[in-house]
Structure of Nucleoside diphosphate kinase:
Amino acid sequence: MAIERTLSIVKPDAVGKNVIGKIYDRFESAGLKIVAAKMKQLSRAEAEGFYAVHKERPFFKDLVDFMVSGPVMIQALEGENAVLKNRELMGATDPKKAEAGTIRADFADSIDANAVHGSDSVENAAIEVAYFFAASEISAR
Ligand code: YYY
Ligand code: MG
């Protein structure tokens, strides 16, 4: 299996619940390494750019409003099969449908306030990691 990188965001709801460490523990316990991290208050332009693929969707404005409602914790995760592994740790987009023991089942409130973001493909992961981190901010481990 290939060593991959993926982009993860702890969203404002989970930062507000003070569970960054508990979510990081899920990543590290699954063998994913945090190779870059920053806390940030996103601007509207940053949130809109990040979620540009969803700009025609009915939930886009609410999604952007939510993503700028408080600071987020952004990290690049590295490990074997990191993209899929992170998606499995996250659980389904709607926490009501997320498998027991996943991050969203345990920490998310609703489909819009759903605790975490994770890249959905290796291609998008490269784009999303580069959206938030310069190469010099990522540490090989
Ligand atoms: O990748 P993932 O976050 O699981 O879901 P996406 O389908 O990419 O949607 C991105 C984001 O948009 C989702 O995490 C919450 C929000 N959203 C929503 O509020 N309502 C929907 N019906 C679908 C998505
Ligand atoms: Mg997605």
